[in-house]
Amino acid sequence: MKRWCGMPFLTLFTALTASTAASAQVTIDVAKITCDQFLAGKVADSRSVTVWLSGYYHGMHGNTVLDVNALQQDSQAVMDYCITHPSVILMDAVTTLLGKKK
Q1: Which of 13, 63, 87, 93 could pair covalently with 58 via S-S, beta carbons 3.0-4.6 A apart?
Q2: Taking the model in full, what pTM does it have?
Q3: What is the DSSP string of the chain?
Q4: If 0-12 CB within 10 Å is exposed, 13-18 middle and 19+ buried, where does residue 79 land?
Q5: Who contacts 64 (Cβ-Cβ below 8 Å, separation ≥6)?
């Protein structure tokens, strides 16, 4: 009977421990990511970084419209550029490529 009394506590402890580990925050300074790191997914998921960069860049220019086709084309252009320029800072690559569109 005593064995079952500790079970709710053990379950609660396990749940709290798991949720604490799952909510651990990771911060990334995007201004330091190189093209090589971006392509290899060494810092974060490349798709997440791409979406963040798109929002950042377009937000800086006051553009609140999400053009999904343009995002995909821009993403491919950045990847192609990064393949040939692996040591370039990713944000510089985006500025170089998207700056040409303005």
Answers
A1: 63
A2: 0.69
A3: -HHHHHHHHHHHHHHHHHHHHHT------GGG-BHHHHHHTSSS-HHHHHHHHHHHHHHHTT-----HHHHHHHHHHHHHHHHH-TTSBHHHHHHHHHHTT-
A4: middle
A5: 58
Angle between the 90-99 and 68-84 helix axes, to the nearest 10 degrees?
120
Q: How far apart are the first and last CA of the chain?
A: 73
Q: Model confidence over 21-45: pLDDT tens digits?
A: 455 668 889 999 999 999 998 888 8
Domains defined for the chain, CATH in brackets: 29-99 (1.10.890.10)
The angle, 0 to 180 degrees and rounded to 10, between the axes of the packed helices 46-60 and 90-99 is: 50
